[in-house]
Specification:
By secondary structure, the chain is of the alpha/beta class. It has helices at about 35-50, 70-85, 95-100, 145-150, 165, 185-195, 220-235; strands spanning about 1-5, 15-20, 20-30, 60-65, 90-95, 110-115, 120-125, 125, 135, 140, 155-160. Strands 6, 7, 8, 9, 10 and 11 form a six-stranded mixed β-sheet that branches. It has a five-stranded mixed β-sheet with strand order 3-2-1-4-5, with helices on both faces.
Amino acid sequence: MLILALDSTATTASVALRKNSKTLAEYTVNAGNTHSVTLLPMIEHMLKMAEVSLSDIDLFAVSAGPGSFTGVRIGTATVKGLAFNTGKPCVTVSTLEALAYNLRGTGGIICPAMNARRGQVYTAIFEDGEPIRRLSEDVAVPVSELEAMLSDFEGEVRFTGDGYDLVSHIGKYETPERLRIQSAASVAAIAERVYNDAPDKSVFTDSAANPTYLRKPQAEREREERLMAERKQEV
């Protein structure tokens, strides 16, 4: 099975090809470029270098969030279009689970943390293994609450994600920079397992590839705050 996966949920843009349970190619850019401009050219270049055509793809995979609202929308919309045009199945993967997969084999507790702004992080807790085991749901919490969450679990904690600098003081292990950023190869590996384990593969359609936000967009939150402030002034 040949899988094309992508992740554009944060500053990093990453695309990858996975064939027969091995990474065939991965193309990652961490330069803060606009994903709507770079993502499709990255895919085209990677396919050309791997001598693969879009029609060869058996399965599409995308990191569907949480993360940057714009990045999540661009990634899911891109995969929806590719899957629809080719009639191939599509699997969505949690950004946090894919980040945790980056640290597979390190042992203990794995805690991805993405910067959600305003002193919060998108996070979840996993236990290393084959496969990695989810111990909590994806949530958006203040950093102080994450420390309390981790106190419920035994074992050394390793952090990853673009919120690493906000939470690394909680643990004692340093994570190499390369393992802190999104990896489409990790998205592809998880998607392969999810697809193979699913008894009903008809659920993996382009229409089901929806974003996961966890909280409202900033513009909507700011609007609600303004309205609340105006109501207080009226009172």
